[in-house]
Write a structure and sequence with these properties.
Elements (H helix, E strand, L loop, with lengths): L9 E2 L10 H19 L3 H17 L4 E4 L10 E3 L2 H14 L8 H64 L1
Parallel strand pairs: 1-2
Antiparallel strand pairs: 2-3
Helix pairs in contact: 1-2, 1-3, 2-3
């Protein structure tokens, strides 16, 4: 058990419990780099090699895989080193829940999708406002056209009535 986290160590914890040091960033990059090959493979032995390669890469840099042994403030926490099947399962879990886009985990990806939807909604709202303005102009033009038509019809009727009146008075 240790309370010290090295520069290249990877703290694996549920939720947002991981410490984002250099080791965690390197680990995340390795996950992202190997994601496509891992997910495109239907062979467990290929997936096992990918997981082993990620683990070896972190260890070759002097890093260890740690998980919190106790709850508490970061400076008070104790960590135990993950090894063997527990470590392999932790890396496999991360690979399963990793999404392709920008190497984000499913939670981070969900937030990214929410932001994209917000931007899309803003764009749609702007387009709706533009359409409403165009409709309003068309309605105004339509009212003007109707008034012009009414005036023309009235003038035509008056002229027709005058001609009719002149022809009946003759």
């Amino acid at each position: 058990m240790t309370s010290l986290i090295g520069e290249h160590d990877v703290v694996i914890a549920k939720g947002r419990g991981g410490i984002e040091n250099q080791g965690y960033k390197e680990y995340s990059d390795l996950i992202t780099e190997n994601w496509e090959e891992y997910h495109n493979s239907d062979k467990n032995d290929v997936k096992a090699v990918i997981v082993a390669t990620i683990i070896k890469s972190i260890r070759d840099r002097g890093g260890k895989f740690l998980k919190p042994a106790s709850k508490g403030k970061d400076e008070e926490k104790k960590y135990i080193e993950l090894k063997g099947e527990d470590l392999e399962h932790a890396v496999q879990h991360r690979m399963r829940y990793q999404t392709k886009k920008k190497g984000k985990t499913s939670g981070e990806q969900g937030q990214s999708e929410v932001n994209q939807l917000k931007e899309l909604c803003q764009t749609l709202m702007q387009q709706i406002q533009t359409m409403q303005q165009k409709i309003q102009k068309l309605e105004e033009n339509s009212e003007t056209s109707q008034r012009c038509l009414h005036i023309l019809c009235t003038e035509y009727k008056e002229q027709h009535d005058l001609k009719k009146g002149n022809s009946t008075s003759n």
